[in-house]
Amino acid sequence: MSLSRRHALLGTGITLAASAVAGCATYGRSVTPAPAAPESPGPEETTETTAALAATADVPVGSGIVVGDVVLTQPNTGEFKAFSAVCTHAGCTVSEVIGASITCPCHGSSFHLDGTVATGPAKRALDTTPITVQGDSITRA
To answer: Cα–Cα distance between 119 and 23 in angstroms, integer?
Structure first.
């Protein structure tokens, strides 16, 4: 027995429709995949390679710099702080540190070198980012 072209196309269409319905059955549901087994590092491997965000000499005393998604400040000699560069007002990225003021270009918010709000509309301090200062390098903790 041979299938006509019409019957073959009809069968393909029904198969595709059934697949689409099955796919939609899980639409909107959160499907959590099984966690993968962690790989153990070898004796000479580390679990994470951490590149330096900046050298301590790059962060001026009484000011700071924006490095990617992090703001690094040095309010006092040898005292380094780090914050998310995402403004807590509307999610814009702060653009620069001018003197002792971290500024956001979107709506004019500014922050002190300790991340607290200097002028709004932001009402909440910048989120702290953990860092490690080792020698003359600043890295994420």
So the answer is: 50
> pTM above 0.70?
no
Contact 72, 114 (CB under 8 A): no
Nearest CA among 137, 81, 77 for reference residue 112: 81
Superfamily of 54-140 according to CATH: Rieske [2Fe-2S] iron-sulphur domain (2.102.10.10)
Distance of alpha carbon 105 from alpha carbon 94, whole angstroms: 7
Q: What is the DSSP letter of 86?
A: B
The Cα 82–Cα 137 span in angstroms is 13
All structural domains of the chain with their residue ranges: 54-140
Token representation of residue 96:
């620069």
Question: Rg of the chain over CA atoms, in angstroms?
Answer: 27
Do 108 and 99 touch, CB atoms closer than 8 A?
no
pLDDT in tens, 46-78: 434 578 899 999 999 999 999 999 999 999 999
